[in-house]
Design goal:
By secondary structure, the chain is of the alpha/beta class. The radius of gyration is 22 Å and the shape is globular. 41% of the residues are buried. Helix content is 37%, strand content 13%. A nine-stranded parallel sheet has the order 11-10-9-6-5-2-1-15-12. A two-stranded antiparallel ribbon has the order 3-4. β9 (203-207), α6 (211-220) and β10 form a beta-alpha-beta unit.
Length: 438
Amino acid sequence: MTEVPFPDAQVHFGVFFQGVNHHTIWSDPSSGSQIDFETFRHVATTAERGLFDAFFLGEGLRLREQDGQLLDTDIAGRPDAITQLAALASITSRIGLVATQNTTYNEPADLARRLASLDVLSGGRAGWNAVTTDNAWTGENFRRGGFLDHALRYERAAEFLSAARELWDAWDDTAPRTVERDTAHFRFAAAPTVPRSAQGHPVIFQAGVSPAGRDFAAAHAEVIFSPFGTHFEPAREFATDIRARLVAAGRPADDIRILPGTQIVLAESESEVAEKKRWVLEHQITGATALSLAGQVWGKDLSHLDPDGPLPAEDPEQSTISGTRGAQRDGQDRTAIVAQWRELAETKGLSLRQVAIETTARFGFAGTPGQVADELTRWVRHGASDGFNITPYLVPTGLDEIVDWLIPELQERGSYRTSYTGATLREHLDLRPPLTRR
């Protein structure tokens, strides 16, 4: 019998509310607005009913574009994350509230104050997903433009986090004190305006799979996201690497919670699983979306083509792919991707839309509630992850089946909490005190 390295491990869940994306099934009659507060309320309160650790908001500082035009196949709203989470703090009592906030286009004294305010107002439930941006098209929204070289983005982020933590620590037991910084990236003198919350600091989340991103996480993060939320072995290899980097950085191997992003599709009976999975994939990548994705690869308008027909016969534009639709193919060579698409289409006999589904669809787990519960339990108890950050394929109701069907199965297996045992996000995640306060 194979030894189970973590026999008592529990599955941790977060829910990722993306906003702008082409993976939500917009055509379903129950698909709702991604701007109206009612949508956020439904998802957050459903997640709290399901004893999730956190409700997590994505960030977009600029709407997606293609060929200089706003991309109307996946546009949805992204209200300011901290404002939205402050509103949700008033109607929830336990679930963590995580804001994605950019270290490239914010400033430490201002952002640290806003995150600390959310943390205090929510009773110690705030988290910060610290992200970097180096592309000029996002920078066009800001006075200094796309000023930051790619190599400097983690350097600035590390300084940013250090400054924010010093500001959070600057309210001691008697009175706040002034923090001063004068570096190549920051120059300020500021004192905190609110005391520390019950959890000390907002929990630091980070997503990065490059060597630099992994080292940054090992040095600074408390939760890390990854794209390894479908296949067990790549996920376990990533988790093993992160734990080794933690030890090399002088931290305990279990000092980070690893929550890969994933999607879960549940069916009541085994005979329905394949059909429901196919329905989700085909409705996520519509014909218009497939043509738009192919147009990004070929570098030209392909909207006149039949998405269920063959790939375009012509060669792509000789340039790299712009990141204006997100980072998935940012900077990649068009010719190489077209060659891969053509090989896939020829080998498997696929249409343009089918190739788009195979190469861009995000997937994770599909099965009956019992089957998926067994697999998620295997992941956490064999060290592949500490849980999952779930992106529902339908908003706002896509989380309901997971809470109503899957969580009871996990609880039966002893791999999921039956009640919240703490009040703060740090307690939900079983994290140690903040790095600077140990």
